[in-house]
Design brief:
about 425 residues; Rossmann fold; Molybdenum Cofactor Biosythetic Enzyme, Chain A; 15-stranded mixed β-sheet; about 20% strand; globular; 3-oxo-tetronate kinase; NBD_C_sf; kinase activity
Length: about 425
């Protein structure tokens, strides 16, 4: 059996590519960390979820190569490095260094770099990354607190991160003869950025890329891969009934819109950072008591606990962003864990860092990928630290429709 091994640089990215692979017909599991790959015998693809997007370069490389070794031990014979479709990185990495390390590990000479995800408005043209109609550098990503993206030219962004040559293949070649595209991909070793502005471009790239070339990119390319035996039942999931909870730590513009829309439709509580800083345990107790009251009154209704609802919240925490972020992640992880103890069995988590904190707090080691909620967002089933099975959705900050917190539950039916 052929097994596709994927390494994702954050937890929401892992479920993002998991959703894409399920759509393509792969039975897919996401494993948290790299110590073991438990379900390799019953799936067609395994995604290792790491938290390496913003860690020091050496740590990101070590974790990624360890994940690669675990996937090889599980029988993987083709590999995919998944990063964000907005190419989130700094001047030193971690996209370039991890790609270099995986090329060294696999023995491959070439990696394709394909962040395009047209379903979510991410496209590459003439080597420049667009978010919707705007250049990446003119989008909200310009002001990202951890990885501000101030240059849309991917060659300029990537070149300082790698010791290998960086080159680009333009749209005319992508849309030309398949043999010519294959030749262009493989003619010179290095890191190859490809233009792609719609799914048909991604399908051409997937078909033209030889198996020995390392795949890297967003989830868009993964959706165009073809398993040896496509599975119609990929993504089938038995939902776990119980209380419903949304915890949101993301400060992205899209998530703020989702919080605003949900606040009109469900019980919603804004985290009080001052109170958490002064009396953390007591404030967590107060929040859980508030949620318990609402669940008692409406057992099927979700409740929302969020950190950022408006641009004003960003300004309020700007001077202490790092401390505020740590406090938010700790609080939401504790709320999610206590919520599961109180009967939550359907949980939405918004934000990559928040997702990592929540999954770690719950002791989740593996996710079985289920139905798609929106492009890049999916339900999954997971066992909580030798406890109950829950249905959980990990949402990247920029993904999902405005009404997602209210409508996501319908996809579990």
């Amino acid at each position: 059996m052929q097994l596709l091994g994927c390494i994702a640089d954050d937890f929401t990215g892992a479920t993002d590519i998991g959703a894409a692979l399920v759509k393509a017909g792969y039975r897919t599991a996401v494993t948290i960390g790299h110590a073991t790959v438990e379900s390799a015998d019953s799936v067609d693809a395994v995604v290792v979820a790491l938290k390496t997007r913003t860690t020091p370069v050496d740590d990101a490389v070590d974790a990624s190569t360890a994940a690669y070794d675990a996937l090889v031990a599980a029988g993987a014979d083709r590999f995919y490095f998944k990063y964000c479709s907005t190419f989130d990185s700094t001047e030193t990495g971690n996209i370039g260094p991890v790609t270099d390390a995986l090329l060294d590990r696999t023995g491959a000479s070439t990696a394709i770099m394909v962040p395009s995800f047209p379903a979510n408005g991410r496209t590459v043209y003439q080597g420049h990354l667009f978010v919707g109609d705007a250049l990446l550098s003119d989008s909200s990503m310009r002001n990202h607190p951890l990885t501000p993206m101030t240059d849309a030219n991917l060659e300029r962004v990537l070149a300082p991160q790698t010791s290998r040559p960086v080159r680009r293949i333009g749209l005319a070649t992508v849309r030309g003869e398949q043999d010519a595209l294959t030749a262009a991909i493989t003619e010179t070793p290095g890191l190859v950025i490809l233009d792609a502005i719609d799914d048909s471009d991604l399908a051409r790239i997937a078909a033209a890329t030889p198996a020995e070339v390392l795949l890297t990119g967003g989830a868009g390319l993964a959706a165009q891969l073809t398993p040896k035996e496509p599975r119609e039942a990929a993504g089938a999931l038995t939902p776990t009934p119980g209380r419903r909870l949304v915890v949101s730590g993301s400060a992205s513009e899209a998530t703020r819109g989702q919080v605003s829309a949900a606040s009109d439709r469900m019980p919603s509580l804004h985290l009080d950072l001052d109170a958490l800083g002064e009396r953390f345990d007591a404030e967590i107790d107060r929040i859980l008591d508030w949620a318990e009251d609402h669940w008692a009154a409406q057992p099927d209704a979700p409740v929302l606990v969020y950190a950022t609802g408006s641009a004003a919240d960003l300004e309020a925490t700007a001077t202490t962003r790092e401390e505020a972020s740590e406090l938010i992640e700790a609080a939401l992880a504790r709320i999610a864990s206590r919520g599961v103890d109180a009967g939550v069995r359907q949980l939405i988590v918004a934000g990559g860092e928040t997702s990592g904190s929540v999954v770690s707090a719950l002791g989740i080691t593996e996710l079985l990928i289920g139905p798609e909620i929106a492009p890049g967002v999916v339900w999954a089933n997971a066992t909580v630290d030798a406890g109950p099975t829950i249905s959980i959705a990990l949402k990247s900050g920029n993904f999902g429709s405005e009404d997602m917190f209210s409508t996501a539950w319908e996809h579990l039916a």
